[in-house]
## 1
Amino acid sequence: MSTTESSSQSAPESAVLIPSLSDDVALNCLARIPRCHHPTLSLVSKTFRSLLSSPLLFNARSLLNSTQHFLYLTLRSHTLQNPFSWLTFYKPQHNSLPDHTHFQALIVPVPPIPSPSVGSAYATLGPKIYVLGGSVNDVPTSHVWVLDCRFHTWEPGPSMRVGREFAAAGVVDGKIYVMGGCAVDSSARSAHWAEVFDPVVGRWEAVPSPIEVRDKWMHASAVVGGRIYAMADRGGVVYSPMRKEWEGVGVDLDMGWRGRACVVDEVLYSYDYLGKIKGFDFRNGEWKELKGVDKELPKFLCGATMANVGGRLIVLWEEKVDRNENRNVRRKDIDIWCAEIEVKKNGDRDQYGKIHWSEKVLSVPFGSSIVHCTGVSL
């Protein structure tokens, strides 16, 4: 569908976006403006505000290849009124700037999830983040909440067939798969240990699974080559939606995967027990240390969170700090650091990383922690 056709179908209330320009030309111009300028753009006129709150603009950005990559971050705190806070991370376009150029990061708060839960699974599908299940007052829930990242609005999604906490989730061919996180102590839960959601149909359906793969708790998951890898307390399982086949995770992958991982170019990145980032190449079936970054990054002995944002490896980590507000008052905080790494392989199958920037992006109250992060293109 061309931008002209889109404009004729979903034009904003006013017939004129920019005087002396046709709507399709005006839309092509406005769709190229970086999203960080949209708040200012909304002040121009009611027509612009209407356009910015319409899917039309985002459809045009996609068609014009003008989408940008954003990082969405979920934090948990025991000291704030709302235990979970959502943020989106904006950074300036700096392709023309030297590496390590300092810039002021812009953190934009996202409205809190209407019903927070602990141990939810997450799945990103297009411009939407699905928060699947979790426990509320120690009771697993089947509820699904959907964040539309285009407009930062929450809406309830179709509930799963069973309640889950600490489940695995992945997206393959536009469908969301979720597995585990439930005790198979009834025929209904056993039959729906794995489920699939098709947004076109709008409902969850059972995915048949053999008894031997049905572990309860899942600590990590990833999608590689159209297959969903789900790591359980003991070992893990792999599901191929195309073949509808289940199998076990190999010993080498299982031993090296500590959770909080992400996939970039078919390589799964995690960190080992020495705090170094390593990548598992599925084609070669081996772990390799990511070289070139160890001098500029800390040892992640307390863990780090990773995401694929526009084909780059994004690593976030927490640092505890003591601050002196005055001579008599000391305050403990948590600093959130972020690094953007370009990863590549050479002919010897070694993996190399180039850090494009590394900055402290946020300070939060002591006791806060990173729950989840993901990349979204808008």
## 2
Amino acid sequence: MASLAEWIAGARPRTLPNAVAPVIAGTGAAAWLGGADPVRAALALLVALALIVGVNYANDYSDGVRGTDDERTGPVRLVGARLASPAAVRAAAVGSLALAGVAGLVLALLSAPWLIAVGVVCLAGAWLYTGGSRPYGYAGLGEVAVFVFFGLVAVLGTQFTQALRIDWVGAVAAVATGAMSSAVLVANNLRDIPTDAASGKITLAVRLGDRRTRVLFVALLAIAGVATLVLTAATPWCAVGLLAAPLAWRAAAPVRTGAHGAALIPVLRDTGLTLLVWASATAITLAALA
């Protein structure tokens, strides 16, 4: 039986900024429109956190039963390491996704019922990333899904459920958030190229190869930087988001210098921290100047 610490590790806490930051950014964008609502923001945060934990457990289960996680560097894999039964991890995934669904249903009924359809797509995307007979995560589409779900949908959805409309500020913030969220997955998949290729998991990193995956990681961080400069058209004070630049530089250092394996693990942490600092600084600025 897995211990509580192993279950927590299996939820992959280092990915939580990918859930928290879009809600922060979206709430800041809603405040810019004069529509921030703490109750709806809290519901959006619950949806995002439950969804990402559900995704992580679902990936652990699906990759584990396929044997993809038998040899891995990085966070503990509950099924792959034989720490928990596949049924137990699947139940944890389903429970987390169900919680996300319930919270999302409440949020949709408080704002716009048509968002229920968006929620259904998000839940399906969470499970089919590595689940089902043709998982899209095995076809090199994982980074695209992260950009869409934890960038565009999460930020603009958070803005809309509070302000009941979106604008270009929210859209640019969503692009920046999606780019940094995708960079976290790129770093993870860069580390796992050898084992993913051997097990038949054809991620985008496997398709691109080591060198071009490193270029993609840096490019995604650069896109976030450009988006920050675009936001200064709303208010020059959005340049405060560039406070995250030193963290981005630190995150990219192992990627730029050719690190491999376990040496790439800190990249996930530092990229997530970059995302969280950027979202917080930008949201505070937008809210203060609304």
## 3
Amino acid sequence: MAVNVSDVVVRTAAGQERRLGEWAGQVLLIVNVASRCGFTRQYAGLQALQDRFGPRGFAVLGFPCNDFGAQEPGTLEEIQQFCSTTFGVGFELFDKVHATGSKTAPYDTLTQAEPAGDVAWNFEKFLIGKDGTVVARFKSAVEPDGAELTAAIEKALAA
């Protein structure tokens, strides 16, 4: 069954609630991020994806998560500062979430998409089509500039 995230409400870093449906018509890459992880360097690649595909209706949405190895212990302000100064991150970072255990939005919905199951680690990526449905899921080790991911983004943008 196709999982649609359009009605999922998430909390921005400023504490405002937003429906993911506000991004209807855009392709989204939702990523649980962490500042002290072996995959943290992927922030640079995620920003490169935002720069490359953003003008075509693509957005990276980052959700800081401290569930895996306590690798995102900072406050939102600390996280934003780190991402901005270290990696030049300009894509939107949201309030901290739980991607495992007592999951919070958007992960309570995302993890129902096939292949269903808990997020395994930081920097797992969910690709959302223009209609709000989850079209692909990529494990942490899939690099942002990997052919598998960029091809899936291209396909979703062309749909």
